[in-house]
Amino acid sequence: MTDAELNADSTDRLLLQRMAAGDRAALATLYRGYHGRLCRFLSRLTRRADIIEEVINDCFWIAWQKAGDFRGDSRVSTWIMGIAYRCGLKALRQHGDEPVEDSNVPEERIPTEDPNEDRELRDWLGKGLERLSADQRVVVELVYGAGHNLDDVAAIMQCPVGTVKARLFHARVKLRNVLPALAEGSSAFKENAP
């Protein structure tokens, strides 16, 4: 672990200790610190914003209740991601993954006059990730998006490291096969083509 990761984990451990003592401000701090990461991670399981928010709330309710039980066998981030993953699977079993029509949710506006190549690259990769199974997307997000090592991912997903390696291998192979075809339809890649 890097110094920054060690410092972040030490801070998170202190917040968990304070939560175990009933400190709601510590819970709010941990929630704010993880909300964005969990949204991104859970978006690999489902695109339903209602389920993502429900899962995050359930995750932190469990973290609040179990803060005193944290043994320190892993980083706090691994523990929280594991809770979120299990809550996400449970929510998907209960609600399914069908999109919800909600006309009250404003769509994000993307400027069209000055397209951002980084946004286009993210969209291209996102389309590639959609071609993977949910387990493969989660493994890719945890390893490449969140920076977890294979042992952490195995702990989060509660499966053997070999299973994580296999999912990552198959995800890479599938991405290697689908991304070139997706790039052919992308204007950013057409501009740079020979």
UniProtKB/TrEMBL annotation:
Belongs to the sigma-70 factor family. ECF subfamily. It holds the Pfam family Sigma70_r4_2. Residues 97-118 are annotated as: Disordered. Residues 106-118 have a biased composition (Basic and acidic residues). InterPro entries: RNA_pol_sigma-70-like, RNA_pol_sigma-70_dom, RNA_pol_sigma70_r2, RNA_pol_sigma70_r4_t2, RNA_pol_sigma_r2, RNA_pol_sigma_r3/r4-like, WH-like_DNA-bd_sf. Residues 124-175 form the RNA polymerase sigma factor 70 region 4 type domain. PANTHER family: BLR3042 PROTEIN, RNA POLYMERASE ECF-TYPE SIGMA FACTO. CDD domains: Sigma70_r4. NCBIfam families: sigma70-ECF. Residues 30-96 form the RNA polymerase sigma-70 region domain. This is Sigma-70 family RNA polymerase sigma factor. The lineage of its organism: Bacteria, Pseudomonadati, Pseudomonadota, Gammaproteobacteria, Lysobacterales. Keywords: Sigma factor, Transcription, Transcription regulation.
